[in-house]
Amino acid sequence: MHTLARGKLLAALLLMFVLHQVAAEPASLPLTLTERLEACALAEDADPAGAIALADSVLADPGASLFERAQALGCRGWSHAQLGQRDLARQDVEALRGKVYQLELGEPRTVLLRRAGAILHLNQDRVGAVDLYMQAETEVAELGLEAGRLPLLINLGVLHGELREDERSLASFKQALELMERLDDWRLEAPVRFNMAETLSRQERWEESIVHRRRSIELIRERGMGGPAQEMTAEIGLASALVWLGRLDEAQPLLARHRDSPLLRQNPTIEAQWRHVESRRMLALDNPQAALELLAQVDRDTLNDAVLGAHLSVEATALERLGRHSESVAVLRRMIEHSERFLVQQNLERLVGLKAADDTGHHTQNARLGTIGCIFRGGR
Q1: Tens digits of per-residue pLDDT, 308-363?
Q2: Cβ distance 63 to 36 under 8 Å?
Q3: I need a surface site. Which of 30, 187, 270, 340 has the fewest CB within 10 A?
Q4: Would you say residue 44 has pLDDT above 50?
Q5: Residue 90, Cα to own-chain centre: how many angstroms?
Q6: pLDDT for the residue numbered 371
Q7: Cβ(280)–Cβ(240) under 8 Å?
Q8: Cβ atoms 117, 375 nearer than 8 A
Q9: Cα dihedral across residues 120, 228, 282, 196: positive or negative
Q10: How far apart (Å, rounded) are the C-alpha atoms in residues 309 and 62?
């Protein structure tokens, strides 16, 4: 079945599931185990709470296999991390690890190791992700799974970007594209383009980033990869680049399209990104009060390092323009403290990554590639 058609079917089945959650026994649920797991994968970004309910139903089903239980833990852990429920996400990763190590060496096991690492990365535990990704890398090499290197290269690119090692980040993404061309396997092109755009944006190479952002949106729509939530995230990223270039009229409809979307309200991470970009647009329109009001509704405990720093920067600028200078200075101090903590953590993570590489006998390769990260889809 075509990916988009399959997605629509599973979305309908997910609705059926929600309507039948009062069922007393897992066997009476309207979805098979396979359908519930597929629907969970679709819902974990768009509706994390719904995904958790689906995962719970699989874990409670006595007919679920070891592999199906591991998949359910992966979906639930990712969803908890999306909701900022870090302790619950960490618990799911520990349970997932226990299941993974019971599986025989093979591709499904490497996929689940990457999945566990991606959850820890989303949960802002990069050091914990290092060990899992390096295990996955080792097993992929042992099995000779060249295609298995693709998501790992994307993982590397993402974390290099977060550590502000942008040239290494771009190098990893370019290696991934070259490997795709050699294998004639373009299934993960969308996350590569998406994340290349993120790295180029950090370098303020806005025009180049827009090319990759538009292409990633085309691919997401064509292939249904990541579903509506990922399309929304990609469009918010495109709007962000347009705002930085002063092309506010082009950015406005992209942001307005999602203003009242239920998906935005269901995912605090995506909502925080939307509010940040819209607040910058308000600043560009000389409306600092509106910018502050947008940011005031964000739960900062759910923000990752990069997004929190960006929010503080906009807040300080808005306060300054309103003449609230002492408040602006206080926010700037918080931003400096946050940046200093980030740099300390960044250096610690580099040391952990290099030591792990040395301990596993992969020093040359991993010192070059650095540590590891997650991607919006392929590394799960």
Answers
A1: 888 899 999 999 999 999 999 998 898 888 776 666 665 555 555 445 444 444 33
A2: no
A3: 340
A4: yes
A5: 16
A6: 28
A7: yes
A8: no
A9: positive
A10: 46
For residue 340, the tally of other CB atoms under 10 A from its CB is 10
Side chain identity at residue 351, one-letter code: L
Q: The dihedral of CA 82, 87, 91, 97: what is its sign? A: positive
User: Phi, psi at residue 297, to the nearest 5°?
Assistant: -90, 5
Which amino acid, one-letter code, is at 62? P
- The rounded distance, in Å, linking the Cα atoms of 7 and 30 is 17
Angstrom distance (rounded) from CA 362 to CA 356: 8
Q: How far is CA 83 from the centre of its chain?
A: 12
DSSP 286-352: T-HHHHHHHHHTS-GGG--HHHHHHHHHHHHHHHHHTT-HHHHHHHHHHHHHHHHHHHHHHHHHHHH
Question: Which of 193, 288, 284, 295 has the alpha carbon at shortest distance from 247?
Answer: 284
Q: Residue 60, Cβ neighbours under 10 Å: how many?
A: 12
pTM of the model: 0.68
Copy the structure tokens of residue 266.
Answer: 């269901």
